[in-house]
Design brief:
Number of helices: 1
Number of strands: 8
Radius of gyration: 20 Å
Strand content: over 45%
Shape: extended
Distance between the termini: 31 Å
Order of helices and strands: HEEEEEEEE
Helix content: under 10%
Oligomer: single chain
């Protein structure tokens, strides 16, 4: 048995949300869903690296901005990529003065769904490394 407690403020906020989405004369509620094929936005950051992108759930076209965190400068764009993942995973190489390695983007079946994943094999000056695979967002 699962029991959930809400504060009075949280309960009031839920009630306001429900009332703001109800139709006149208690005729139900408005439900807004993302349309099929609409891009699915995602953001992911780990250590010194960040991805900000989207993937089209119909065509599997990936658009992503790749950034690294530079000391005393902050987040700096190192590239943009647009790739079609429908025919398989795509690997992009990074060979900058401050960062080297690769990132592989692909699709995999996981728990009855299709997921966008990224495999990182990156290092930067100073000895920081990222070697991991993560699921970024469910696509279907």
């Amino acid at each position: 048995m699962l029991v959930t407690f809400l504060s009075l403020e949280a309960a009031a906020e839920v009630e306001r949300y429900i009332k703001s989405h109800s139709l006149p004369d208690d005729n139900g509620y408005i439900l807004v869903e993302k349309s099929a094929g609409a891009p699915i936005d995602f953001k992911y950051s780990v250590s010194f690296f960040r991805i900000d992108g989207s993937i089209d759930s119909t065509t599997y076209i990936l658009n992503a901005n790749l950034q690294i965190e530079v000391p005393f400068k902050g987040w700096t764009s190192i590239g943009h990529m647009t790739e079609n993942l429908s025919s398989g995973a795509v690997t992009t190489g990074i060979n900058l003065g401050i960062a080297k390695g690769s990132i592989t983007f692909g699709l995999e079946k996981y728990e009855n769904g299709q997921w966008l994943y990224a495999t990182f094999a990156l290092s930067v000056i100073g000895g920081k490394h990222i070697d991991k695979t993560v699921r970024l967002v469910q696509v279907a």
